[in-house]
Prior knowledge:
The complex is a heterodimer of chains A (376) and B (140).
Chain A: H1 10-25, H2 33-39, H3 41-51, E1 53-54, H4 56-65, H5 70-81, E2 86-89, E3 93-94, E4 99-104, H6 137-152, H7 168-175, H8 202-210, H9 214-226, E5 234-247, E6 260-279, E7 285-297, H10 301-315, H11 326-330, H12 335-344, H13 350-375
Antiparallel strand pairs in A: 4-5, 5-6, 6-7
Helix pairs in contact in A: 2-4, 3-4, 3-5, 4-5, 8-10, 9-10
Chain B: H1 3-12, H2 15-28, E1 31-47, E2 54-69, E3 72-79, H3 83-97, H4 101-129
Amino acid sequence: MGYVAVKGGTQAIEEAIKRLKYERLHKEQVLETGQIEAGMRGLIDQVMSESSLYNEKLAALAIKQAEGNPEEAVFLLRAYRSTLPRKHCSQIIESEDMKVERRISASFKDIPGGQILGAATDYTHRLLDFNLMNETEKTVKEWLSAYAIENSSIEELMNGPELVLPKVLDYLRKEGLIPPLENNDAEPDDVTRESLEFPSSRSQRLQILTRGETGAVTSLAYAVIRGYGALHPTVGELRVGSLPIYVGHPNEEGSDEDEYYIGNIKATEAEMLMPFMAEKEKGSKELEFEIGYGLCFGQNETKAIAMGILDNCLEHPDNSFPSHNEEFVLLHIDSVESTGFISHLKMPHYVTFQSKLDSVRKTKGKTEEREEVRSI
Amino acid sequence: MKRKKRTEILIEGSHELAKSLANEIEQKYSVSSLQEPEHGLVMLKVRETSKKSLFYLGEVLVTECKAKVEGKIGIGIVKGDFPELAYHLAVVDAAFLGNLPETKSWAGILESEKQYLEEKRKAKNEAILKTKVSFETMDV
């Protein structure tokens, strides 16, 4: 059988796109991007993180266009990002400069600066709040006004503290519980400019993990803890807050004070403590800690913790566990790559499938011929 | 006032402030726009705290503009989609680079906006600190 190239379907495609628009609009409700930005913080943060592009407005637009489908929204943002020039690289962002809005430790009760719960769902009952069905602008304003009055009555407001807090890890380093380290300022690799090759560098691994699909990163980290890995992590410190961004002058050398402040981003950072038995002199063993590191755009604590777990897994390659295999982890957690490949399976594969059918027919034909010969 | 502090005040504070400062320069000097406000990306380089090495966290959308005043080229760059603010920042930057006399009188205005931002920040921090846990040891 010969293969035939075909064309057609243009009109059907155009009508399918109209149908897609109809599905978005047929309830005759206009979903404003401002509403998405204001009320879908979690989804906005997830989409910005997975698309590796920080802008709430664009994320809201992508979510609207994608009808709330994160994989499609991430695809749209990644595509848009590729049309923009990269103008600068920021000065080094240090997470100790984070203006903290939430900060907890599961390892230590008493941490310098204290445990600050901030905005978290951890202590909610997870019961559907049917009052939200009847929420109005009036009730929202009333609540906000009451909350503002509640906070304005705090004494000594003008002498309020600075919420730039010391790191738990620095405290442990000072105590000698984890070894001190000097800064390593080697230029990082950029997986958006150069394709990933194995063995990967640490900077490549962290970049891929931070832009990984939230569910995929979480699932693999969960598998590690369930036994498909060799780690027993504890959250040393988890913090959410804003990180200031500075850019140097493109042509002039200057001091830190001559940098441009361009704004801040919200981020979640997780420092995971991993106990392990270190071999010491004369065969003795001692319990020590290693740190798995997670950092991602927005408030996405599960992802940051999971990233910290996988970071430490990949620092210790072990082919007994897929979660410790960098090729397995890094090549399968990207949203656009994984959803793109899986969804491409629904695209026309007429030629390749016909070829498989041909093979099946030929094989079947030969078998039948052989059976006929045998029966004679 | 140095650029780092000044840009922080103008970006975090009321955008009307940058506008009024830029307008003051426009009324007295010839301002030419070398690069109209346009979108671009800034790649974020961060330090991780496990090995203290660097990696790229992702990119942030920015609006950037370049303006020339009295032979000095100022740059305005801000996170997000703010073409007007980027232009005003560029004019103010050029004014400071040229050490124009107007910039001397701006110190007080910038300082009072800084005070306002400090008050806002402290109020926010106090509200956040109401969520700080106060542990009590239980008798078992």
